[in-house]
Write a structure and sequence with these properties.
- By secondary structure, the chain is of the alpha/beta class.
- Helix content is 48%, strand content 11%.
- It is built from 13 helices and nine strands.
- The strands form two sheets. A six-stranded parallel sheet has the order 4-5-6-7-8-9.
- It is globular, with a radius of gyration of 18 Å.
């Protein structure tokens, strides 16, 4: 069996589509319609495409980023709409779909309540958070109610890539570096490190984070993170590599390459890597063909394909 869990949708509604467009402003308008159709489909056409690619089950997530909506009331309204819309799709196709909740964190307590509703009442398997919320990162004290609920629910948080709140001068004049090419990776890795060094997993040891794109480079930096963190944290604290292996899992979303897969499996262990595509921004068939041919043994392939997702998301 093959399970994919960074597979996106957006409600085919102007407000939701515009929210998604703020995440990917570089996509030309003449390509939007080609992407919007498969993005908005949460029914038979998506299931047929999954079947053709050998993917049995997908955990869907809303890519209309409410994190970037400055109005808390509108963010909550859109989150509830997205969660209810997704719940209906899952109810209609329970053998093929599950969902990650959309959680508005402009008001962390209200967001935590919506997260709890989405998991307890709608059956969501976790939450997908798209980057920072108006410049605030998930290590900040204001988000304690959110982490309390995440731990209580035993529901993982998928930290999806997004831009920084302030555009770094590093990328000025070099649009090639922006978005999925590099800036999202740097931003999301930094966000995850804030959560690690901010002590979130000390306060909430049962909380779990998921990172896409083969771990946003972090699995390949464990030695250096451990070594350099000693200058700040001292010798007696838990090493970043220990926290990464214990509290963070990663997916193959958008990174169909043997070398980083082998390195990730060695760095984090076979129980921490899960298959994903990043549909519709990446090709499902390409992702499946790659994993089928990847130079790993059958036991590791089974864990990456579905075993780890079944366990971590309680599918």
């Amino acid at each position: 069996m093959r399970i994919a869990l960074e597979e996106h949708f957006v409600i085919d509604d102007p407000a939701h589509v515009e929210r998604w467009r703020t995440l990917v402003p570089w996509i030309p308008e003449n390509q939007i319609s080609k992407i919007k159709q498969p993005l908005s489909d949460v029914g038979e056409e998506r299931i047929a495409a999954m079947a053709q690619a050998g993917i049995d089950f997908a955990v869907l997530s809303n890519v209309a980023t409410v994190q970037g909506q400055l109005n808390a009331r509108i963010a909550m309204k859109m989150a509830r709409e997205a969660n209810d819309h997704l719940a209906k799709a899952v109810q209609a196709h329970p053998r093929h779909f599950a969902g990650f909740a959309t959680v508005p964190l402009q008001d962390a307590s209200a967001g935590a309540a919506e997260f709890e509703r989405a998991v307890r009442d709608l059956g969501m398997k976790g939450a997908l958070i798209i980057g920072q919320t108006d410049g605030a990162y998930l290590d900040e004290d204001r988000f304690t109610p959110f982490w309390e609920i995440a731990q209580a629910l035993d529901a993982p948080i998928y930290l999806h890539a997004a831009d920084a709140s302030v555009h770094p001068a590093t990328y000025a004049g070099r649009p090639e570096l922006e978005g999925a090419t590099w800036s999202w990776t740097a931003e999301t890795a930094a966000h995850a490190l804030r959560i690690i060094f901010g002590g979130v997993f000390t306060r909430f040891p049962k909380a779990r984070l998921i990172l896409g794109h083969m771990g946003e480079t972090l699995p390949y930096l464990l030695w250096r993170l451990d070594k350099r963190s000693q200058a700040f944290a001292g010798q007696d604290t838990v090493k970043p590599s220990t926290i990464l292996r214990r509290n963070i899992a990663i997916t193959t979303a958008g990174t169909f390459s043997d070398d980083p897969l082998i390195c990730a499996l060695k760095a984090l262990g076979e129980d921490s890597v899960m298959f994903s595509v990043d549909h519709p921004f990446e090709d499902m068939k390409e992702a499946s063909r790659w994993l089928d041919a990847a130079p790993i043994d059958a036991a590791a392939r089974e864990k990456v394909s579905s075993g780890n997702a079944r366990r971590i998301l309680k599918l």
